[in-house]
Design brief:
This protein is of the alpha/beta class and about 550 residues long. About 55% of the residues lie in helices and about 20% in strands. Among the domains are: about 1-130 and about 450-520, Rossmann fold (3-Layer(aba) Sandwich), CATH 3.40.50.300; about 190-335, no CATH class. The two termini are about 25 Å apart. About 25% of the residues are buried.
């Protein structure tokens, strides 16, 4: 539930903080005092669009912050999935909009996207305004009402699981058929391309090996000359080679080691260098003999590499490995042509099996909805009779869709007639605004009894209603608030206002900074005066005060 709301620098609001309570609360105030501004702030807090015009003139930004008790909402998974701190006793959501139009959103002081804030907001507050009556013409909303009222929710869950698997199977089957047809049309081309590559008998790593050998053969004389030159420098046939000098130096130092100990270590180090260089000379000799100029081998390699390069260019690949992978793909496609009929038949068998299961699941969903529809019809007529529609007829009409949908095979239409003469017609087409408001209130009342609802805010749902009927609507909202729900009604009717467990007043005041909107919670005496003023206008009479006390005594 909404525990408190803090608004700063929003439109005509300078700064207000208001605490709310569980149960049924009412908000009153004269037309133009700022009740719509208050709702606008709540809507922005819930993730609705905002712009710089929301910022109070002279301020650099506006801030709306709400504190919620979410202990009964089962939202732990939402917070875990979005890596957010979870505090079920005090969940804080905040929205900031700067004068430049830049918007920021926070959940428990963690920055989030406005979309994420909006997602959480749907679990926290349901604002019913006049435009929400349009939902009564939405087939999906009507289905949702029946599913909420249904005693067996597992049927729809099972249907959705089977539907997802069925659609996946159909998508896979369609893709397989398309690939099969395409591959069959391209079969001759595929076989030609594959044969062309296979005839070359390329092997993994062959290109790198041939390119390296090509480099050696193309520069054989240069390589051989360098190898011989290095060997001659180290161990040539001159009078004194570098190797001989090292050997003699080591021997000289070894002779004096008995007299000069440091010479022994130097001798050993030179001897080690001699052994290493001797090994290098042997390697140079071996390599110089292995490098030979072979024109025929070079010509073969050139032709082999040219064939590789041509096929890579033809198939638009960069490496031999990619070319071999392409050949493997050709084999898979040709294999699909050979075995495609069997694969398609097996997948069609799976789809048919899932279709049968889906048909049974859809039937179970429909049966549950039809049972819920009977309860809904009776419940709606019982409530709407008390709300001033004695001849009301409310029915739920079922039709079957041609194809499966994510919600089943049902299309439902709420049918309505307010008199005994006209036959029931689609609710959205024949009900007046006042009738639509009462129908929506009755629906929300029935739904509230089936599941934990977010905080319900009714924005003048009682417009166009007065007298005893207004009192009945107020009592209905009060009953909703007494069943572990929080219901807030913005109203102009004293009969409704008198039924609130808490009463708030929105008003305007003139300050040095201009006109400002404010809200206060009324005490018992102020509440008597407010309700009396709602009945009599500016001039308070003793009769109006007595009537106000009488209305409040009915609590």
């Amino acid at each position: 539930m909404l525990k408190s709301l803090n608004i700063r620098n929003f439109a005509l609001i300078d700064q207000i903080t208001v605490d709310f309570h569980q149960g049924f609360s009412v908000i009153t105030g004269e037309t133009g005092t700022g009740k719509s501004v208050l709702l606008g702030a709540i809507s922005m807090l819930l993730g609705q669009r905002s712009d710089a015009t929301a910022v109070r003139e002279g301020a650099d930004r506006c801030i709306i912050e709400g504190h919620f008790d979410i202990s009964t909402y089962s939202l732990r998974n939402f917070f875990d999935e979005n890596d957010l701190d979870y505090d079920e006793q005090d969940c804080i959501i905040r929205r900031e909009v700067s004068v430049t139009g830049r918007s920021r959103a926070f959940i428990n002081d963690t920055p989030v996207t406005v979309a994420r804030l909006k997602e959480l907001g749907t679990y926290l507050i349901d604002v019913h305004s006049q435009h929400q009556n349009l939902l009564l013409g939405d087939r999906n909303y009507q289905l949702d009402v029946l599913d909420i009222l249904s005693d067996d929710t597992s049927a729809l869950v099972s249907y959705k699981d089977i539907y997802a698997e069925y659609m996946r199977c159909r998508k896979e089957l369609s893709k397989l058929k398309d690939e099969f047809e395409k591959n069959r049309r391209d079969e001759d081309w595929l076989r030609y391309q594959l044969n062309e590559i296979e005839q070359c008998e390329f092997s993994e790593g062959e290109q790198e090996e041939l390119e390296q050998e090509q480099q050696e053969l193309s520069h054989a004389e240069e390589i051989q000359s360098a190898l011989y030159g290095a060997l001659n420098l180290l161990d040539g046939n001159e009078e004194q080679s570098y190797m001989q000098s090292l050997r003699e130096a080591a021997t000289m130092l070894e002779r004096i080691a008995a007299h000069y100990p440091a010479a022994e270590e130097l001798s050993q180090r030179i001897e080690a260098d001699y052994i290493e260089l001797k090994d290098c000379c042997e390697e140079l000799q071996r390599r110089s003999r292995s490098v030979t100029f072979a024109p025929e081998r070079l010509e073969y390699i050139d032709r082999r590499l040219a064939l590789m390069y041509d096929l890579q260019k033809k198939h638009r690949v960069e490496t031999l490995e990619a070319l071999l992978a392409l050949a493997a793909d050709f084999r898979v496609k040709l294999d699909q042509i050979t075995n495609g009929d069997d694969e398609i038949a097996e997948l069609e068998k799976q789809c048919n099996m899932l279709n049968g299961k889906l048909q049974q699941a859809a039937k179970s969903v429909t049966e549950g909805r039809k049972a819920a529809a009977l309860q809904l019809q009776q419940g709606m007529m019982d409530i709407l009779v008390t709300l001033g529609m004695p001849l009301i007829r409310f029915e739920v009409d079922f039709t079957t869709t041609q194809n499966y949908t994510p919600l089943g095979t049902d299309e439902v239409t709420f049918l309505f007639s307010a008199n005994s003469i006209s036959r029931p017609q689609p609710l959205a087409e024949v009900a007046s605004g006042g009738e639509m408001a009462r129908v929506m209130l009755a629906l929300k009342y029935l739904v509230a009894g089936k599941r934990q609802q977010p905080t319900l805010i009714f924005d003048e749902i009682d417009t166009g209603i007065s007298g005893a009927l207004a009192e009945r609507m107020g009592r209905l909202m009060r009953q909703m608030g007494c069943t572990n729900h929080q219901v807030i009604s913005i109203t102009h009717l004293p009969q409704v206002a008198a039924l609130g467990a808490s009463h708030y007043k929105v008003y305007k005041e003139e300050t040095e900074k201009g006109t400002r909107t404010n809200i206060i919670k009324l005490n018992d005496e102020d509440r008597v005066r407010e309700i009396a003023q709602m009945m009599s206008g500016e001039t308070l009479t003793d009769a109006a005060l007595d009537n106000a006390r009488m209305l409040l005594s009915k609590l």
